[in-house]
Amino acid sequence: MENGTQILRPTQDPSECTKEVKSLMWVYVLVGNIVRGMGETPILPLGISYIEDFAKFENSPLYIGLVETGAIIGPLIGLLLASFCANVYVDTGFVNTDDLIITPTDTRWVGAWWFGFLICAGVNVLTAIPFFFLPNTLPKEGLETNADIIKNENEDKQKEEVKKEKYGITKDFLPFMKSLSCNPIYMLFILVSVIQFNAFVNMISFMPKYLEQQYGISSSDAIFLMGIYNLPPICIGYIIGGLIMKKFKITVKQAAHIGCWLSLLEYLLYFLSFLMTCENSSVVGINTSYEGIPQDLYVENDIFADCNVDCNCPSKIWDPVCGNNGLSYLSACLAGCETSIGTGINMVFQNCSRIQTSGNSSAVLGLCDKGPDCSLMLQYFLILSAMSSFIYSLAAIPGYMVLLRCMKSEEKSLGVGLHTFCTRVFAGIPAPIYFGALMDSTCLHWGTLKCGESGACRIYDSTTFRYIYLGLPAALRGSSFVPALIILILLRKCHLPGENASSGTELIETKVKGKENECKDIYQKSTVLKDDELKTKL
């Protein structure tokens, strides 16, 4: 009904539905991510190698923990910014948002995803400036006062490096690659990292979607809660892990045991999340009949009933309403509503013949809430997630030190870079693809685009979604403990730096003390000679 007059809309002309040339703006996003990755990747691998080379043996875990903490504070601020952007409509400034009939909790809502890029691009330019002022090399921490004594040694090393540079990088690249590939601890650590990173990329990428579908909250709230509950415990865990390594001077073997057993503890704690569940949203025609009886399978014909089959209601439209009987309907038309009052998101539908209730049957826009019990389960899940994040991050720095110290010093930059490359190529790229395909397999109702093509999924089977979201990462992480245990066995037979509570720094300091003792002996001998000469003259 438009202006009180019934309008019969003709079937859309097929020529109007000809597919237009799709926008290629996604290419700019792709190229932007490639350039960003080129600038971002060297900072973390090479920066960590930089710290490990020039910091004291016992201090480098703390410094690396602080760097990793900074790498978490950034996403924390980013998630808070994303939560704000997701709460702003994508076309804000171009449309009148007061006329919108959807809210951020609606699956059709699209947030202002582009706004964050403008802010972050400006901040990235500013943060890049200090890197231009970093020196090419630094004196080893703790030896600044003895710089004159070790000056000759540094000069010799620089001469050797100049000779090596004449041959180019290719001469060292292949031998280093061969050495790393023949290092069983290093290769097993990469395998563990790839498997675990597959699990964590999936969990982090799809956590907002999981919170939306499982607990019925908006995407902006899901992103906000994810940032507040998960990232601060990770920051604290990194710092405490680094402090423990520094305070107790943990050796590589001890660090490997700490990392492995803390990860196992967090893994066992993770299974409690299977108990924190909510029921599916009851949507009539999808998983519930018009009589309110749950049904397992989605059947297209169940969308219509005897009383609305002749109402010419569209079967593929997704414009859900919540009836005062606690059930949701795909549209007000399928609920049999005849009149409405109010405008925008405050619209209320009345005289709905398919809503079976004792009083006046009415409906409001949106899916029905899942109730207070589901909100309580959400709190339990978030608390458990915070505890798991803290325990796992506590093990992260000890585990990372195993990676750094199972390699030769000259191989660290290449080794850390290769480790980052493998985790991104074999986990960061494929994991969201196959995991997203599995998520789509749980979809109960797909949206429909203008020309009849399938759009985004509007509602998932939350039970199956939960089993895939929690189950697949659990299986992946469980398999990663096999190579982790092999690493512990191999470390028992290896001799690595830091096992005798000594370090390269202490060896150099011993040389310095030796040279100082030599100076004292020469001085004493010269004093004796002068006394003898004096006696002779007398």
UniProtKB/TrEMBL annotation:
GO biological process, one term: monoatomic ion transport
Membrane topology, as annotated: Multi-pass membrane protein
PROSITE patterns per record: KAZAL_2
InterPro entries xrefs: Kazal_dom (IPR002350), Kazal_dom_sf (IPR036058), MFS_trans_sf (IPR036259), OATP (IPR004156)
Keyword Transmembrane listed: yes
Protein name: Solute carrier organic anion transporter family member
Membership in a protein family: Belongs to the organo anion transporter (TC 2.A.60) family.
Domain Kazal-like, chain residue ranges per copy: 301-354
Cellular compartment(s): Cell membrane
Organism: Homo sapiens (Human)
Transmembrane segments: 62-90, 110-134, 185-207, 222-244, 256-276, 380-404, 416-437, 468-491
Transmembrane as UniProt keyword: yes
Keywords: Cell membrane, Disulfide bond, Ion transport, Membrane, Transmembrane, Transmembrane helix, Transport
Gene Ontology cellular-component annotations: plasma membrane
Pfam annotation, one family: Kazal_2
